[in-house]
UniProtKB/TrEMBL annotation:
Pathway: Isoprenoid biosynthesis; isopentenyl diphosphate biosynthesis via mevalonate pathway; isopentenyl diphosphate from (R)-mevalonate: step 2/3. This is Phosphomevalonate kinase. Transmembrane segments: none annotated. Gene3D superfamilies: P-loop containing nucleotide triphosphate hydrolases. PANTHER family: PHOSPHOMEVALONATE KINASE. It comes from Callosobruchus maculatus. One of its GO terms (biological process) is isopentenyl diphosphate biosynthetic process, mevalonate pathway. ATP binds at residues 14-20, 139.
Length: 190
């Protein structure tokens, strides 16, 4: 199968490690004409909102709505995933614009990585972002049973085959992380 992409960058990390922060900076550096951020949670939330009569805009935002429904959304989407593990990954890619670089900013499960690797083969590069618990707490993370202790948060804790592992405990860290990822990307999209 031919793809328009040259890179599919899969990004993973615990809550408040700075996934969005790093992905947004990468997108700006690569340029919006070449790059977009994809979220597997996009089609997931759309379908959930539709099925439950909720406001999608509220659900997509970082507000309280997201936290109120997070748990139920996980249970609901797990049911769909049991029948078809790739359902939400495929839907996210089907809806994504054609760009040289796709950054998938919410990779959570081994089944996500497997589907992307089966589909996009050697275009796939994987990145794990980490930050200490102290730093994540400073950024607003509060441990939640039923969220932080289940597969959607821990499914990749023991995954070891990352192409890049970067830490994001500080602004300095993020610069180093972004530089090293950009070095690879620049070469691949030339
Ligand atoms: N290197 C950094 N320097 C300064 N602020 C940062 C850094 N990384 C992240 N932040 C800030 O920390 C907060 C959490 O980051 P972000 O939303 O990117 O995390 P996330 O991993 O996407 O979280 P979630 O899993 O909840 O979506 C944001 O306010 C972000 O601006």
């Amino acid at each position: 199968m031919m793809h328009d992409n040259k890179i599919v960058l899969l990004v993973s990390g615990k809550r408040k490690c700075g996934k969005d922060y790093i992905c947004e900076k990468l997108k700006l550096l690569i340029g919006e004409e070449k790059c977009c951020i994809i979220r597997i949670s996009g089609p997931l939330k759309a379908l959930y909102a539709q099925n439950h009569g909720l406001d999608l805009k509220e659900l997509m935002s970082d507000g309280p709505y997201k936290e109120i429904y997070r748990q139920d959304m996980i249970t609901w989407s797990d049911k769909i995933r049991t029948e078809n593990p790739a359902y939400f990954c495929k839907a996210a890619c089907d809806n994504a614009p054609k760009k040289l670089v796709w950054i998938v900013s919410d990779i959570r499960r081994k089944s996500d990585i497997n589907w992307f690797k089966d589909t996009y083969r050697d275009l796939v590069k994987t990145v794990r972002i980490s930050a200490s618990e102290d730093v994540r707490i400073q950024r607003g993370w509060v441990y939640k049973q039923g969220v932080d202790d289940i597969e959607s948060e821990c499914g990749l804790d023991d995954y070891t085959e990352w192409d890049y592992q970067v830490s994001n405990n500080s602004e300095e860290d993020s610069k180093i992380a972004i530089d090293s990822i950009m070095n690879i990307i620049k070469e691949l999209i030339q």
